[in-house]
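re: ur msg from earlier - yeah i can do the pyridoxal-5'-phosphate complex, just paste it... oh wait u already did. ok heres what im feeding in:
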Amino acid sequence: MQNTFPILQQKDQELFCNTYARYPLAVHHGKGTRLFDFENKEYLDLLAGISVCNLGHCHPELIQTIKEQSEKLIHVSNLFYQEEQIRLAEKILATTHLDRVFFSNSGAEANEAAIKLARRYMQKVKKREAYEIITLEGSFHGRTLATLTATGQEKFKDGFYPLPLGFISVPINDLESLSKAVKEKTAGIMLEVIQGEGGIRPLSENYLVQVQQLCRDKGILFIIDEVQTGMARTGKFWAHQHLNLKPDIFTAAKALANGLPMGAMCVSQEVSQGFDPGSHAATFGGGPLVSSVAEKVIDIIHRDKLCSQAEESGNYAFNLFNQLKNMYPNIIQEVRGNGLMLGIECKIGGQEIWQNLLDQGYICNLIQGKVLRLLPALIISKKELSGFSQALEKILQSFSNK
Ligand SMILES: *Cc1c(COP(=O)(O)O)cnc(C)c1O
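and the outut:
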């Protein structure tokens, strides 16, 4: 198996559209919180496929579900009634205040569904010519043309103009700019409770409550993108539940089926009337295989009390990282996040620190050039978290001696 990495790297460069800046690592297999490369070097995975494998890699019960369901039915299309999809819908909706769900295959598609539904609800049910969605600067909502237009970061839009009409972004935690942006044509406001891709930036609690109120006052839709924050990641099943917010629509994906592609848009009975048969669809959405896996994921989150575990482990890690911040105030700017969605912002040396961690067998990712983003599996142990923290401490120490 020696020297497999350079061969894979070479082929990768020849075969694919050059869309990914890959890490210098080829993963051979995974188990729980661990990944292994082709030389069987072990890594602690603090990224979990970007908040996807919340139950860890190759979870034995999910393997069993995949085996059993794949022998029964894999795909049949949404022309048919499907018990797996119905069971999942019941379980997902039982975690929320909302009434209806639409299944897609990704986060972008779930957001696309939310945007389309917001427009159609306004135009067909409310009989208003409202279509504009207001989003926040620094947000991330996906890569389709509509969702990348909704995304409040210019770098993702470069070279893709002209973009669809009907989107505008305003600064975060600034109620005045937001209120001013609401016009006759506004259909809704869409935001992440903690901006993930934008650098693990939690919105202020006051602001979130006021945004909901503004939506109610103006008769527009309150839409929350829970693609990264959802599925117990922050210590509640959905991050908006920390503040008891009641969005009209929220979207999920990433961890929904622990690695099989799946997205969902949850919506109130009232707003769901915006769609009629034929107004929206997804060939693969909510198929029997992914649905049975997602159902199992939800069962395990409840049974193993992973919300409270994420909260407790998250608090534990947050305190460790803050101690590091106090010890190395010249290197660490701030520690942010909630539950097991944590960001460590570096003043200097982000790239080097990240690379050192990887060399030592710790996988996280660096976003916005300076924030170490940690989204480990929710089953990660305190021992693993403190091991990471100690490794980081040593790196910071050698860094500050330079
Ligand atoms: C990852 C992400 C998306 C896009 O999800 P895809 O499955 O890649 O389309 C949308 N919103 C947020 C908040 C995300 O983190």
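cool cool. The first strand starts at residue 27 and ends at 31. ping me if u need the other ligands too
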